[in-house]
Amino acid sequence: MPSNEFSSLPNIYLVGPMGAGKTTVGRHLADLLGRQFLDSDHEIERKTGASIPWIFEKEGEIGFRSRETAVIDDLTTLSNIVVATGGGAVTQAINRDFLKQRGIVIYLYTPVEIQLQRTYRDKNRPLLQVENPEQKLKDLLAIRDPMYRAVAHYIIETNQGAARDLALRILHLIETEML
């Protein structure tokens, strides 16, 4: 684990579409920084005792987004953490404000083809339980990409390297800019 050379850095928040690798890259980044890693979707499930698909089924997307905002508000008040957000977290203006004002936001840009490869068998993604998941991913990216870009301090393309390599690129980018 590294020394406290990174303790002065703000929290780091990863945003991007489902299948971008936010959780995997986030774990590597947290390890490199000697920080705790948290995933906002996992925190929602932990706090509610229910799965994301169940919450979507019972409360709809509006209910889920309300829970998500509360969790993001809580997480962004912690210190020395790396957080992977859910793909739709940026759809709420208040979440974008929490993230941008309370840390460094990294957008993991991922083309739809790669998202589809990484998510096509995952039944825990309620928004992809449709007849044409590829079209759904295209539609979501068209809507959300401008929001990811608006909230991001940095954009990293995820089709250029393994998760650990991406984490090292993020760390180098942050070191170059902030230290």
From TrEMBL:
Under what name is this protein listed? Shikimate kinase
User: How are cofactors bound according to the entry's free-text note?
Assistant: Binds 1 Mg(2+) ion per subunit.
Provide the species name: Acinetobacter calcoaceticus
Keyword Cell division listed? The answer is no
| CDD domains, A to Z | SK (cd00464)
GO CC list? cytosol
| Residues where Mg(2+) binds | 23
Enzymatic class:
transferase
Q: Which InterPro entries match?
A: P-loop_NTPase, Shikimate/glucono_kinase, Shikimate_kinase/TSH1, Shikimate_kinase_CS
